[in-house]
Design a protein that fits this description.
Blueprint (H helix, E strand, L loop, with lengths): L2 H9 L25 E9 L2 E11 L4 E10 L2 E12 L2 E13 L2 H6 L3 E8 L4 E6 L9 E2 L7 H14 L4 E6 L2 E6 L1 E10 L2 E12 L2 E8 L7 E6 L2 E11 L1
Antiparallel strand pairs: 1-2, 1-15, 2-3, 3-4, 4-5, 5-6, 6-7, 7-8, 9-10, 11-12, 12-13, 13-14, 14-15
Amino acid sequence: MTMIQANYRRARRTTIRLLAAGALFVAGTSAWALEPFNAEYRASYMGMQATGNMTLERNGQDQWEYKVEVAGMGARLTQSTTFDEHNDHWRPLKSVDSQAGESGLAAMLVRNRSVETTYDWDAGQARWTGDVDSDEAGPVQLRAGDMDGMLINLAVVRDVAAGQPLNYRLVEDGRVRGQRFRVDGTETISVAGEQREATRVVRTSGRRETIAWVVEDLPVPARILQRRNGRDHLDLQLQSFN
């Protein structure tokens, strides 16, 4: 078995969670204004080279869609969340999390999977449909400030800039989990060919570690690195932003 085959086999049941599940990502803050953006990343996923695209767009007058897509070597991994702003909180309304093998080895080895989450704030419940086990379908009770993993991506960048605590309540995969990050100093990193000072934030959970680099005036992480058992699992490095 080649290294690529081994990597794909390990990836069959894995969807990229970015900062949240593996991973990252509310204290209410009204001063941080949302603006549409498009960010391109160079990606390395379990040793496989890929490209990443992160976008934020308006979805109607009062809603936003935040989306991340990573594609390479025949595999495509996508996450999106539709959310609104309510009482200084970002509230997830619907999330979609999918992976697919489209060509080559990925078509044979990556198991197609898609999960949709619905956050019903009137009923105060979150539910999951699609490729989920019965014990992951919910419902889960919601409370003000709950987010999905995608929104935590945005919130970490916002709250580092505002000097807010980096503690969150993640509602995902049929359960609720606390997400706590710590500031781990600053360092100079390369962002789109320029040297920029970044604040490094870290979350550790057992044998998994996530590190994000936040640069002033950028509403997205300049870099996201996930490690498992001390080895790099996913590395996203910002290449362009507009």
